[in-house]
Amino acid sequence: MILKVDCNDEGIGKTFQVIENGGIAIFPTDTVYGMGCNPYNVNAVEKIYEVKSREKIKPLPVLAYSLDTVKQIARIDAFTEKIIKKYWPGPLTLILELTDKKLKKSLKLDNKIAVRIPDSKCTLKLLKKCGLLVGTSSNISGNPSSTDPKECLKNIINYDIFLNGGTITSKGESTIIEIENEEIKIIREGVLKKEEIMI
């Protein structure tokens, strides 16, 4: 039975409890509805791959509460920090050098991790409690992402709690970039276009 809660203090508190206990949550972000869990919980991470029918070779991205949180798990140079300060919270995902060995193990990552801080009051309140969350789109792999709670509830099963933030008015998914030697490489173009990101 999936627990359905609203984006208020009580709902966010319940969602946090479920995540702490190894559960899978669906929650609103600023772009689409996301699916997440505690990124340090190996069993929960495995379950996300199952629920999404996602190939194990595709690494899972994470959402973070703050720049300080990100600095605890990844290396950020001065150039990257400038971009972060301009676009976070927002629809920009950065591929960074991972320094957290526990995350490397639980998420089965090599030396890189995809991270962003979402511009959603509801998600940020949840992240304030969690610090970090796996933050992948709440869809079966290969299917479109969802901005409508009804679509999510209809299309996804076998998770534990649904944090309802209503319909998300978004222009699409986040843009994914990697920065090497102050060179911005677009991995996936989403809401932000390459020319917008140049500083």
In words, what does this structure look like?
Helices cover 33% and strands 25% of the residues. The strands form two sheets. Strands 4, 5, 6, 7, 8, 11 and 12 form a seven-stranded mixed beta sheet that branches. It has a five-stranded mixed beta sheet with strand order 1-10-2-3-9, with helices on both faces. A hairpin with a 2-residue loop joins strand 11 and strand 12.
Topology:
Layout: E1 3-6, H1 9-20, E2 25-28, E3 33-36, H2 42-52, E4 62-64, H3 67-71, E5 74-75, H4 78-87, E6 92-98, H5 101-106, E7 112-116, H6 121-130, E8 132-134, E9 136-137, H7 149-155, E10 161-164, E11 175-180, E12 183-188, H8 194-197
Parallel strand pairs: 1-10, 2-10, 4-7, 6-11
Antiparallel strand pairs: 2-3, 3-9, 4-8, 5-6, 6-7, 11-12
Helix pairs in contact: 1-6
CATH names the topology as: DHBP synthase
Q: Taking all residues together, what is the mean pLDDT?
A: 94
| Number of DSSP E strands | 12
Distance between the termini: 48 Å
Query: How would you sum up the major sheet?
Result: 7 strands, mixed
What is the N-to-C order of secondary-structure elements (H for helix, E for strand)?
EHEEHEHEHEHEHEEHEEEH
Overall body shape: globular
Write down the oligomeric state.
single chain
**Full CATH superfamily name:** DHBP synthase
CATH class: Alpha Beta
Tally of individual domains: 1
The stretches of 5 or more residues where confidence is low (pLDDT under 50) are: none
**Tally of helical runs:** 8
Estimate what percentage of residues fall within beta strands.
25-35%
Q: In percent, how helical is the residue content?
A: 25-40%
The CATH architecture comes to: Alpha-Beta Complex
Determine Rg (CA atoms, Å): 16 Å
The computed structural class is: alpha/beta
